[in-house]
Design brief:
Length: 297
């Protein structure tokens, strides 16, 4: 049992590394946030459909179930838009730091949606993580719009994670991802078509370099990432999955400094904040492991 739980944490950690790479790719792609998300979900849907077709495992669901799962995909698509918009209006560091507020929002949403008493340990862990995040990044007034968009993004992904937990118990990870990508792609296609017809938007075709980045974003940072996260939700709580997302600013900021030249100085506040984030994840892992052993022994 302990080995199985350890494997789930490894999968979750890999998914967070892929999530950290997402912000870098979003900054490198020279397109509007809406088009980045549309191409990402469209490419991911096509690639995933081809894979399932070759394996003869294309999922089939009743129409009412498809609508339910597709709705989650639409929510995921909105999160993507606000996340990439945050990066475009500010930078990768702002986007990923704000994204880490997911654990804070999940600690609020989960008891409300499941109609249960809020977990004191979850709230304390999320507050520790929020304290760490505030130390990692010094908020600059020039990034106000980006910060606001990032906070909305965090709230949306927290809501997505909690609602996903409701449906995922009875559906396979491939079914969830397939119809979520379909729902998100459909919603954005309608929105973009309406924007073009109204003259509000112009259609954007990716350059060869943008296409390469979009492929990586679709295959590794969408299909790979979300299959891992949907799978671990079968064992781990929505809050634990969200809390592990707090590793993302560490990876995202370091990658941004290395590859994008975002010269954020790693001061003592950075290291203290990073340790607080690691502490919050470590404490939650201990609590989750204890609950898991009690439940299965």
């Amino acid at each position: 049992m302990a080995d199985n739980l350890r494997n789930e944490y490894i999968k979750l950690h890999i998914s967070v590394i892929l999530a950290g790479l997402t912000g870098i790719l979003g900054k490198l792609i020279t397109m509007d946030a809406v088009y980045i998300v549309w191409y990402r979900m469209l490419f991911a849907f096509i690639l995933f459909y081809v894979i399932l077709l070759l394996l003869k495992k294309v999922p089939k669901e009743k129409f009412c179930e498809i609508l339910k799962i597709s709705g989650l995909g639409m929510l995921l698509g909105l999160h993507f838009i606000f996340f990439f918009a945050s990066i475009k209006f500010a930078n990768v560091a702002v986007g990923v730091v704000c994204y880490s507020l997911e654990g804070f929002f999940t600690a609020i949403f989960e008891p409300l949606i499941y109609k249960k008493t809020a977990s004191l340990s979850n709230l304390l862990c999320s507050l520790i993580a929020v304290g760490g995040i505030s130390l990692i990044f010094h908020i600059d007034t020039q990034f106000r719009v980006g910060i606001l968009l990032g906070i909305v993004s965090a709230a949306l992904i927290a809501l997505y994670t909690v609602l996903n937990k409701v449906v995922v118990t009875e559906k396979s990870s491939k079914t969830m991802l397939f119809y979520e990508l379909a729902g998100g792609t459909f919603l954005l296609s309608i929105a973009i078509l309406g924007g073009i017809l109204s003259g509000f938007m112009n259609f954007e075709i990716p350059s060869l370099m943008n296409f390469s980045y979009l492929f990586i974003l679709a295959f590794f940072c969408t299909i790979g990432l979300y299959i891992l996260q949907i799978h671990v939700l079968r064992t781990l709580s929505a809050f634990t999955v969200s809390l592990y997302g707090n590793f993302e600013p560490i990876y995202g900021i370091l990658l941004a400094i290395i590859f994008l030249g975002e010269g954020h100085q790693l001061s003592i506040s950075f290291y203290i904040g990073m340790l607080l984030i690691l502490l919050s994840v470590f404490l939650q892992s201990i609590v989750s492991n204890h609950k898991y052993v009690e439940k299965n022994c």
